[in-house]
């Protein structure tokens, strides 16, 4: 290269002007707060926002809850003439004068969290403490159902947050006259102050049901005091802050230490954003009020998840920023090298190229960081929208359930009220009239109870479901529940043991609630315990802790470690999903246990089994209500035909739920008074349903499958004879005993009724006692017929001649089962589909004819067929097991021995001739 070219390049490099840099701002910050967790969260928010602005010099001074020290710090920052002064005072009064002085000297002043007593400041950033107090008051009234005494633990007197929160809380309570503010404790924002003062106040006000603390640390201290006094179970505690992290508000709510906390945003990020808008002379708001919301058990998991996501994103962002700083450091070193080697043209050119490359890389990284910041902002907005949508959805559902319940309660009340008045009035009523009125009252109250059950799940969700307890023997109660599972344990060869430490343990409990808890735990244990496994239920009384612990232990597959933190959450199914699992059973059991003032915990080791522990108080909690008179502790009667481990707790509306022990009767009668008379006579001995015409009677008979039917001959539309013909011609109802009532007494008319299919033909007027005894005789005859069918179908070739409808049905059923006997997955649903009926109708029909369930009948046919195949020469036990649809030879051997009391191998040896 020519000399002129070298000098031209040298002059070009020497003449390069440095790129203009962004102005540097100096922000001084003095803070004085007693809540370390809140202070750390506020500083974390500030540092996060400052990480986007490297041109800001941020000087933070901590006054350590000393107002005099904070005044000296603010004077020093004013003396240094910082570009902007940021103040977070502990008390409003001492800092007002200095804030005004800085403002008058032209230094922008941003007040954070607590306002000063003057309006001479540039901007304010903080929460609406008045709204925080109102929200806490309304939520407290909701928890107490509008009645009770509350206690308030305030912050430092004179501080604006304490004053505003107290004012808002009182305003909210004024709208709920039944909720009274019993006392106040000046906590001064310090847990130690609460620990010192609160015990005496609680002793002076024993009726206190709820405590509202102005921050979460004081709320935690209130819980510790209540626990020390032994009253933590009847107290509900509300805090303020809603911070994440160990020991803070979100964890306290998740662990049930406090019922709720109100989100009080620290405002660190918004304070820095506002300060930069002021310094850059951009538009800004003077009052930046941050919102609040209630965080309780219904949304704490969502809040924690969102917080964790934000923390992960922040960590990713910090990693990118560290990378950016590293690149900037490299760029600075390279730039320094360029200046040092500027005299050498060749070195300057090389280093200039490197600097250009580094600058390009920095711009790329900066664009990447800006994109991530925009994505974080968009996600934050999306989270806020989702939270608002969830809140609106919850409110809409609550309004729906409430309005629906009220719509049903109003007419029921209008029915029940006059009936109660008539029964209580001194007016003479005949015994029949009083009987009828009592019948109306009883059925109206039953319908009212069904309406109340509609809101059971919602009441659990909002904490309004009451526990109606009766003192009883918990050992006997649990044993009765276990009896339901004995048959399943025997079928699957599961060792099922009950080990109570004492033969009798008395305590107050609600049988309806605990029945659902233990049934779900046992169902879960049977679901995940293999055939031949072990399930042990133990019960241990801890007198020192005043509790009783019931443990359900199995040696099944256990719970995966990844699923264990979420296994008690609603609708969570985990990786070991079951086709019949809804994800509700364990969550419902946990919720009902908490409602019963107990705890549900578990221990699990994958591959070795799981143990669930239910801990209940021995002493009756104050929140328990006495059960109504006549209430029993009998567990639910379960349908033993269904596989117990796969069933959920049977609800009243479940068509597969078991019938009551008493038989059922259907009365088809168009005359209202006669129909009422028949109901009155039969109801003490039957569960009675009625129909006023033949068409309705046929429909009810097919849907409900009653045990007996009483039908009038003269009916509108369809006559009683036509009803009888239809009932006996339909295999679903052909087995039901039918009694015809009529005034037609001619012999040929009686013959006509019998020919139509009536089992009994009664002439009006008839003797009610004779009718009742005739129905009982018909039911006994049906039991004998059922036994006849069972003996007829228990032979080696279970085939029945299709002479009657019931025999035809059993023949078709047997043919379908025998045609698929080698299929291990042969199910009741598949058989019902082949017959063109529902599962419930098939089960009721087989139960009525044979007295056993469909699965038991299938098992009997399998074993009968297996016995025939074992007698064939050359057959093996394994081949016979698979040919008859058993899943394994071991299960086949267990079932064969259970029926014939010998193993398949022994049976085959007994019937094989000895070779000579």
TrEMBL record:
Keywords: Coiled coil, Membrane, Phosphoprotein, Transcription, Transcription regulation, Transmembrane, Transmembrane helix. The keyword Protein biosynthesis does not apply. Its EC number is 2.7.13.3. The modification 4-aspartylphosphate is found at residue 712. Residues 310-337, 369-396 form a coiled coil. Residues 403-620 form the Histidine kinase domain. Residues 664-779 form the Response regulatory domain. The chain crosses the membrane at residues 336-356. It catalyses: ATP + protein L-histidine = ADP + protein N-phospho-L-histidine. Pfam families: HATPase_c, HisKA, HTH_18, Peripla_BP_4, Response_reg. The keyword Oxidoreductase does not apply. Residues 811-910 form the HTH araC/xylS-type domain. This is histidine kinase.
